[in-house]
Amino acid sequence: MGIAEQPGSTPATDEVEVLDALIIGGGVSGIYQLYGLRKIGVNARIFEAGGGVGGTWYWNRYPGARFDSESYSYAYSFSDELLKEWNWTEHYSAQPENERYLNFVVDKFNLRPHIRCNSRIKSAQFDASTNQWLVETHEGHRARTQFLISAVGILSAHQLPDIPGVERFGGRSFHTARWPHEKVDFSGKRVGVIGSGATAVQLIPRIAGEVGHLTVFQRTANYCCPLRNATIDPDTQQQIKDSYDEIFAKCRSTFASFMQDFDPRKTFDVPLAERQAFYEEIWSQPGFTKWFGCFYDIMTDEAANEDYAEFVRNKIRARVNDPVIAEMLVPKDHPFGSKRIPLETNYYEVYNQDNVLLVDVKSTPITEITATGVTVGDTHYPLDVIIYATGFDAITGELTRMDIRGEGGQSLKAKWDLEGPSSYLTLQTAGFPNLFIVNGAVFCNFTRCAEVVGDWVRECVGYMRDHGYTRIEAEQTAEDAWTEHASSLTEGMLFTKTKSWFMGTNIPGKKRGFLFYAGGAPAFRDKVAEVAAKDYEGFILK
Ligand code: NAP
After folding, report:
1. Is any ligand 1 atom within 6 A of the Cβ of residue 374?
2. How far apart are CA 469 and CA 521, in angstroms?
3. Cβ 358 vs Cβ 520: under 8 Å
């Protein structure tokens, strides 16, 4: 879809599909939820906005898009047969393979007949007389369902920047999350990339060699760390398959369900020379080891963080030939890891190329987009293509862009605009009965927690069926206590001192607050299991 295009609306027909559960979104969490619910005989169906399944891995098809967690730590764990059958070709697999994998899962478990694509939800209204949701898509399809399950992911509502003239540009332009399905020919073109987050950092090295000229408009420099990807040879493939139990056990044991965990020592308890050797050691490792494998206190102690941040800055400086450009690429305005760390392959070397220009748009912000390019202050940059790698209205954005109305017609957007994304256990929000939110609002390796939450919802639906309940709703007091608990966990965390999508501060007017549950995946798992074991304590069942 081009940037100016929005999903169109067509008049509703009289036909209403009747379901037990309507799952919004056919990505990682939606597919798993569908599998689980159908397994226990629930008439569940996915409504997916895209033309195919895959969610993030359907939409984000820009060159360079790939996993940042190991393919095998991100994969589903629920089926031994699937684990044995599927061969990941790279340690950090790229988008085409990830999309193929999710399609393979859908076909292997015969889920495709239960997925309705090209169906973007426009509105959902709770009908208290039947305890059902009435749902309508932008395409005019209508459904009535007992359970409405939001599996829209955390990074789905793509965000164009608030810059005058975005719609005026005469060349090609697209957001990275709406990348064309056909190959884009950049040869000889003057291309501008706005943004320098994890997406831009994956994309830029992939197109820098192909474009005629590349201009990167950078507002905030990031601490990008080398991914160190590699293909998986047959012996390693076998080793991975033989050790899936250990891989998933390891993920279960760590704070964020990644294979890496923080080092329990405090930074300054370790002598300088040993500390430097430790930093070098984690730096040489693939993936997120340079973040989640570091001393634990870098996430809370500014001095400890600064010690490691300076090590990372020097790594960046060493890769960029021009010291002035190097300093522009070195982050100095936020602590390491307080924003999502981008993982990169040959990113910094791009700035040694003659056909690449880095423009600082922090000191002078982008003034406007014109028909012919981007203007920053008095300087106009003529361009043939503009790529918006400008991020997402994370976690809540996709849901609040729908018109969701709970008990008494109250709007979810209005509730969250006022209170922030308050919830009970991230799973429900008071006033919206039978609406489960399985988006992944836990700071966690996505699939690991998608399985936890998917299992929890499946068991809850089964429990309700077995006990003759038709309605479940979070108690307001339970929600308040959970929200307070979740908020108290972020005290002292350096995340909260930085502007980023983690805090909702990338979206004008969005209420500020850490959008994830920050207590760690093990604590989250224990809590939701305890609530279920206590007959869904904190929920009102009727
Ligand atoms: P992002 O991290 O939010 O980055 C958006 C970029 O656009 C930032 O550099 C931001 O600058 C810039 N920007 C926004 N508005 C601007 C404006 N008006 N003028 C100039 N610059 C502007 O978004 P993202 O890179 O798409 O990444 C989002 C998340 O997606 C990541 O953090 C990650 O969790 C996920 N992701 C995952 C993978 C993976 O796992 N493989 C890959 C890519 C992305 P500021 O920083 O100054 O706001």
Report:
1. no
2. 29
3. no
DSSP 237-279: HHHHHHTHHHHHHHHHHSTTSSS---BSS-GGGS-HHHHHHHH
> Which residue CA neighbors atom 26 of ligand 1 most closely?
391
Tell me which residue of 303, 228, 231 sits closest to 260, measured CA to CA: 228
Q: How far is C-alpha 284 from the geometric centre of its chain's CA atoms?
A: 26
Instruction: Quickly list DSSP for 391-422.
Output: -B-TTTHHHHTSEEE-GGG-BHHHHHHHH-S-
Q: Domain ranges in the chain?
A: 16-158+394-541, 225-341
List residues bridging with 421 in a β-sheet. none
- Cα-to-centroid distance, 197 and ligand 1 (Å): 4
Neighbours of 530 (CB within 10 A): 10
Q: How far apart are CA 373 and CA 27, in angstroms?
A: 35
Residue 187 pairs in a beta bridge with 211
Query: 541: CA distance to ligand 1 center in Å?
Result: 40
* CA–centroid distance for 105 within its chain: 20
67 close to ligand 1 (CB < 6 Angstrom):
yes
pLDDT of residue 441: 87
Give the predicted TM-score (pTM) of the model.
Answer: 0.96
Distance CA(361)–CA(377), nearest Å, equals: 9
Q: Looking at residues 300-318, what average pLDDT do you find?
A: 98
Distance CA 409, CA 429 (A): 14
pLDDT in tens, 449-486: 999 999 999 999 999 999 999 999 999 999 999 999 99
**Is the pLDDT score of 392 beyond 70?**
yes
Q: How confident is the model at residue 440 (pLDDT cuts 50, 70, 90)?
A: confident
Task: Kindly tell me if the per-residue pLDDT of 1 is higher than 60.
Answer: no
- Copy the structure tokens of residue 123: 């509105």
What is the CA(471)–ligand 1 centre distance, in A?
Answer: 39
Mean pLDDT of all residues in 486-492: 92
Task: Tell me how far the alpha carbon of residue 479 is from its chain's centroid.
Answer: 24
**Closest ligand 1 atom to the C-alpha of 201?**
25
Question: Atom 10 in ligand 1: which residue has the minimum CA distance?
Answer: 195
Interval between CA 397 and ligand 1 midpoint (Å) = 15
| CATH class, 16-158+394-541 region | alpha beta
Q: Tokens for 16, please give them.
A: 């209403």
